[in-house]
Design a protein that fits this description.
By secondary structure, the chain is α/β, with parallel strands linked by helices. It has seven helices and seven strands. A seven-stranded parallel beta sheet has the order 3-2-1-4-5-6-7, sandwiched between helices. The protein binds NADPH dihydro-nicotinamide-adenine-dinucleotide phosphate.
Length: about 250
């Protein structure tokens, strides 16, 4: 039996890209999925597909910038499936821009979704995981959470923050409370992520870089690998790029 079988997995940003691919991958290995995002129709469609495959899943519309809504998502998981084994904080956006182009609203949005959304995801599941004496929190950072490029300052700042927070979480929670953490940092992955870029000084360069983007299934498989390891093994960090990416 796969070690994924029967695990209750909450997944934010499940309505497209990496989240959608991960939901399918984990469901095909027997996980029970609790899907969250804002676009209800996409979640409904995904749930229908998972249903057809015989996988147990449920969804809840959630904006991760709302602490209450993220808490309601965690509660929904407990109400439906009685436990939370894995929390995947995947929702994010990447409106890259040059600082001098003054996209201040977009900076705020990235801080709200990419950092605060992850923090709400952590706070909403920690008490339950401590009670269970077991859990796994997977946070999606980025190669841009390891390196900064012109145009990526704020996005990189949010993704560096995700790594810092996850490492702190590991040191505080793993040894005593048996809560595993994984930081997953993807390179160029073919999703809707670049659609949020409005800065025309930056977009052509990103579009060029994303010509080599790989399928989100590559990330989904890596997430499955981290989930699949036995409870005493913690895959703390992974970087996954297209082979051709510098
Ligand atoms: P997509 O744009 O395809 O997916 C982003 C997901 O986040 C969507 O499901 C979207 O759902 C959700 N989302 C955005 N804002 C919110 C919000 N306020 N509340 C709830 N959900 C939200 O991109 P990816 O799949 O690529 O992105 C997934 C993660 O991977 C992000 O954290 C991204 O930064 C990271 N990443 C992606 C890379 C890539 O090259 N694609 C590279 C490195 C990291 P909805 O709009 O329905 O709410």
């Amino acid at each position: 039996m796969s070690n994924v079988e029967g695990k209750v997995v909450i997944l934010t940003g499940a309505s497209s890209g990496i989240g959608e691919a991960t939901a399918k991958e984990l469901a095909s290995h027997g996980a029970k999925l609790v899907l969250g995002a804002r676009r209800k129709e996409r979640l409904q469609e995904l749930q229908k597909n998972l249903d057809k495959e015989g996988a147990a899943s449920t969804y809840k519309v959630v904006d991760v910038t709302s602490r209450e809504q993220v808490e309601a998502l965690a509660q929904h998981a407990i109400d439906e499936f009685g436990q939370i084994d894995v929390m995947i904080n995947n929702a994010g956006l990447m409106p890259q821009s040059l600082l001098n182009n003054q996209k201040v609203d977009e900076w705020e949005r990235m801080v709200d979704v990419n950092i605060k959304g992850v923090l709400y995801g952590i706070s909403s599941v920690l008490p339950q995981m401590r009670e269970q004496k077991e859990g796994h929190i997977i946070n999606i950072s980025s190669i841009a959470g390891h390196e900064v490029f012109p145009g990526s300052s704020v996005y990189s700042g949010t993704k560096f923050a995700v790594r810092a927070i996850t490492e702190g979480l590991r040191k505080e929670e793993a040894p005593e409370h048996n809560i595993r953490t994984t930081i997953l940092s993807p390179g160029a992955i073919d999703t809707e992520l670049t659609d949020t870029i409005t800065d025309t000084d930056v977009k052509p360069g990103v579009d060029e870089l994303y010509k080599q983007a790989i399928h989100p299934d590559s990330i989904a498989r890596s997430i499955r690998f981290a989930v699949e390891e036995p409870a005493d093994v913690s895959i703390n960090e992974m970087l996954i790029r297209p082979t051709s990416q510098q």
